[in-house]
Amino acid sequence: MSQPVITRFPPSPTGLLHIGGARTALFNYLFAAHNGGKMILRFEDTDKERSKPEFEQDILDVVHWLGIPYETPPVYRQSERLSVYQGHVARLVDAGMAYEAEESENNPGKKVVRFKNPNSVITFADAVREQVTFDTTDLGDFVIARSIDEPLYHLAVVIDDHDMGVTHVIRGEEHISNTPRQILILEALGFARPEYAHVPLILAPDKSKLSKRHGAVSATDYRAQGFIPEAIINYLALLGWNPGGEQEVFTLEELVKLFTLERIHKAGAVFGTEKLLWFNHEHLKRLSDQEYGARLKDFSKSEFDARLVPLIKERAQTLTEATDLIKEYDFTGDVSCEPALLLNKGKIAAEDASKHLQAVQAIILGVADEDFTAAHIKDAVWPYAEQEGRGAVLWPLRVALSGREKSPDPFTIAALVGKDETLKRIARAAESF
RNA sequence: GGCCCUAUCGUCUAAUGGUUAGGACAGUUCCCUCUCACGGAACAAAUCGGGGUUCGAAUCCCCGUAGGGUCACCA
Question: Fewer CB near the terminus (10 Å): N or C of chain A?
Fold first, then answer.
């Protein structure tokens, strides 16, 4: 209680940071922040073969992008702490708690170090599932180092967590069966146990652990698909945890206030894109037009008319969709108007369309230049449309202005393209019959 | 297979012994509406099965069943 909370996010840089890893980072951060503590970041790169700098970079990029803070400096790297581990291995061997065994398969000439298993029954408290008990006898004398100077995961983790003052180990449920052997090592070393919390797995639709074979699983993929950090954070937080009320949309700050280990679920949760899309749209809609524009520009790498933002905002669920809509709603180019579309595929008579288009043209001509806004144009045109039939008047008008079957309303488009262009397009459409 | 974990609508979940089992996403229908979208309303949809304990069980216990995780000189 009095001890400051220190959590850790310890990815191994052997692949792109996947969505489950991102959630682990999130939970560790939320818990630490909620308790006024901190989260450290540590790369577990004792596997030299599989660890790659580009994966470290991806992990760092994603964590920054998501806006999950961690304590820095330093960012730890196990590969830089080899001498620390060596000392402990030697100590264990000297104390008879570990021993050099058979020759290494991977390092000819060197001997692996095995932990002398006391074959005890380990029970540990887990914040998520109360008590978990294992009989460690079936673990045997497991290997803790490839050789006296090449530590393996379990050893390194235990030493690091101790040295870095980690108080709470919050990790995926797949580690639950690793916990007893880590406790065995930690007890041999004379370290105190941290608190454990094993978070349920994120599942694929088939209920198996979400993995590469299920398609897009890396956070980077979702970023590329036009999801924004706020949505991913929100969605991930609610996968396997829930504050209890009926509120669904949360900011990171709100999550920090609400987060407790007790409310983490026991069962796995299926990762579904539909709800993520909904969260994305919700958070996108909450952005100011200016902020939205900035993000969209950054994402699409293109310039666009800022007045398009409100139109796109209510329609696009992702920045990718928004990018497509920018192109679609760029009414500055030539607008084609096929007669068939102008007549709503035969639902409107050609002579009516032509008549209404000309009438509307006259009305719009009468709208003062300085009043050429969507609201004013609507006020001017509306009475005529009511009188003649809204569909018959508005459909041809909208198609004349947009050239499309689906689009924002004609008044908005008219205001967007300006009076001259509006009149020109109406004239062109009227002549097309 | 051994060990461990889990089990509420299709999905994410609420309920901490007493509710007509609530909300959200997706679905369907309707309203708004010239289209798309937004917005609003409604419908449909669940406590894995069986035994206990209890006046009362989604909730506690046991047994099944099902699913998952893990059993490396990976992490």
Answer: N
